[in-house]
């Protein structure tokens, strides 16, 4: 029975989890912005840039990148059944650097959502009689730009999902970095062992 590279398999699963988390970030934040009549409520009803950054980050970093590299790793896992050395032949350092950079981007997005939502809730409780932030879904809101009235829907649940997904994606990227470093050291030991065996083989006396 052929055995796959377990570390490659784990990394593949993590990439597909990152891919799924992208939907759990972009959809709630996007829907919430639409429900608020195009206004981004993060950081005191601020510019839409504070909502656009998490949405675009989740689409390109989590969904596109996660799916692409997940499929690439899935192909490598399949090949590892026939070639157990496939993991040592793959690029490692570039992905360590890329995943490290992307983990910072996801961390920034998670902070923007969490801190922005807290600031919004603090302001809401300060200027209204709601006891909890989620109670604002029962209020009638007014778009200060168009004077249109609207109800925002259950924004608390949407942003809670987005926060959990974003912090989870950050953790998954950090795990990918850790696994990449582990693979790097493992490959270096394998190359060193192979080099030592070759040196010993050349030094053995011939009959």
TrEMBL record:
A Pfam family: Claudin_TMEM179-179B
Its membrane topology: Multi-pass membrane protein
InterPro entries (UniProt xref): TMEM179, TMEM179-179B
Keywords from the UniProt entry: Membrane, Transmembrane, Transmembrane helix
Intracellular or extracellular location(s): Membrane
This protein's record includes keyword Membrane: yes
Transmembrane segments: 12-34, 54-75, 96-117, 158-182
Similarity remark: Belongs to the TMEM179 family.
Annotated protein name in UniProt: Transmembrane protein 179B
Species assigned in the record: Mytilus coruscus (Sea mussel)
